[in-house]
Each structure stands twice: as structure tokens, then as C-alpha cells.
Amino acid sequence: MMEIRHDPVAPTRTRRLAPGHEIDAHRHDDHQIVYAGRGVLAVTTDAGSWVAPGTRAIWVPAGTVHAHRAHGELELHFLGLPATENPLGLDAPTVLAVGPLLRELIIAYTRAEDEDSPERARLRAVLLDQLRAAPQQPLHLPAPTAPLLRELCAILRADPADDRTLKELGRVVGASDRTLSRLFRGDLGMTFPQWRTQLRLHHALVLLADRTPVTTVAHACGWSSAGAFIDAFRRAFGHTPGSHPTS
């Protein structure tokens, strides 16, 4: 069994990670907000994965066992909050939108060296106000628990461009599309098309972090054209993949 590291206090700091670098499963007694000022961050728990580019941050509640993975040259900003202080009222990992002001507040706060100064206390108060106002983003890719779904989802994770229908995939795993559709809703809380779109968007973020051309990303992730991919990406993230911040 893999040992899970226990770090009592979630640190407030900045850390750089090379592409592909991982921080193994661990947990904190404090809440943590993780923001990638550069690159793309993936946070994984038993419940699934969350991927955040530079326009998003991830809230990780106290006690949550989680791992990090870097995509692209990653500059991580960690912000720890006491477990008794939950400004967002969230008890599960959540992706938050990060606008220009919140971005600068996170970077300034996590880079500050004088932890007890009045200036830093005021900065923290404004930062918490901005976090409370930050919209939540539906960027969670839930992990299946049902054996049939595990097998099916593994097929799609291996090749997000696989465009077979649920009925066709059902023949591979030995289940009807009706049974699988019911499992997707009951086990993952979303439809098969919704889950596959989330998977493809997650994969697209990883490829973009490696500076893969937009057209190549579109086809590698299963979109029929670059235009269709750009439209889907804009709806999910509010900007086009060509303007996606990787640095």
C-alpha cells in the first residue's frame, strides 16, 4: 500500500516544477488553494481529477488526500488557510476562476517574505474577499467506481479521440448502452457525452501546456475540426486556445 504523507500545515509559498513532475499523494490539516502562475496543474484524488490553467485555481479542503502533476513548466503558488477558516464553504476540491486582480494577489501574497507584517495582513484580507467572489468552474473529471465504467473510461483515457458511440463501446465491455448510460448518471453524475467532453478538455489543456499546435490538439482530442475545438474551448474557459496562457 502506498504511504500517504501527512503535512500538518498547508504551506504558503511558491514552487517551480519541471514538466511531468509529480507531488505524491499527501494531505494537510489545513485548507489549501493551489494556483499555477505558469503551466497547467492537475490535482488528483480518489474521486477524480481537476485540471487548472493560469485562469483557474484549485481549492483543496483540509484532510483531502491529493496528488499534483505538472504539465509544462509549472510555477505553483500554494496558499494555506486554517481548517477553521473556510471562506468558500466548500468541502470538496473545486476549480475557481482567477481574474487579473486575484492572480496578482495570489502571486504577491505567496511571494511575500515578511509573514507577520500589517501590509501582508491587509493583502490577505483583500485576497480572501476576491476568493469569495470567484466563480466556481465545472472542470471536475470524476473517477468511476463501477467496474464496467472503469473499463470503458480507461479505453477513452488511452485515446481521447476515440469517437465510438456508447453502444459500440458497450459491445467491448459487455453491456448495453442503456445500462452504461444509467451508470454514467448514477456513478459519475453526468452523461456519457458530458464526461467524454470533460476528458477531452482536460487532455487539451495538457497538450497546450506542451505548446502543441491548436489544430493538432483538436484532432488528438477528438474534435472534427479546429473550429469545433475552439468553440468548445471558448465555452469552457472563456477564451480561445490560441490565447491560452501557458507562461
Search tags:
globular; single chain; 2 domains; 10-stranded mixed β-sheet; Arc Repressor Mutant, subunit A; 247 residues; 10 strands; alpha+beta; Jelly Rolls
Set out the fold topology:
Blueprint: E1 5-7, E2 13-17, E3 22-28, E4 31-45, E5 48-52, E6 56-60, E7 66-81, E8 94-97, H1 100-111, H2 118-133, E9 136-137, E10 140-142, H3 147-158, H4 166-173, H5 177-188, H6 192-209, H7 214-220, H8 226-237
Parallel strand pairs: 1-3
Antiparallel strand pairs: 2-7, 3-7, 4-5, 4-6, 4-7, 5-10, 6-8, 8-9
Helix pairs in contact: 1-2, 4-5, 7-8
Describe this structure in words.
The chain has 247 residues and is an alpha+beta fold. It has 2 domains: 136 residues, Jelly Rolls, CATH 2.60.120; 100 residues, Homeodomain-like (Arc Repressor Mutant, subunit A, Orthogonal Bundle). Helices cover 39% and strands 26% of the residues. Strands 1, 2, 3, 4, 5, 6, 7, 8, 9 and 10 form a 10-stranded mixed β-sheet that branches. Strand 4 and strand 5 form a beta hairpin. Helix 1 packs antiparallel against helix 2, helix 4 crosses helix 5 and helix 7 packs across helix 8. The longest helix is centred in the C-terminal third of the chain and has 18 residues. It is globular, with a radius of gyration of 19 Å. The protein starts with a strand and ends in a 10-residue tail after the last helix.
Topology as H/E string? EEEEEEEEHHEEHHHHHH
Q: What's the number of structural domains?
A: 2
Count every beta strand, where a strand is a DSSP E run of 2 or more residues.
Answer: 10
Main sheet: strands, sense, barrel: 10 strands, mixed
Q: Structural class of the helices, strands and pairings? A: alpha+beta
Distance between the termini: 37 Å
- Dominant shape: globular
Report helical residue fraction. Answer: 25-40%
CATH class of the largest domain: Mainly Beta
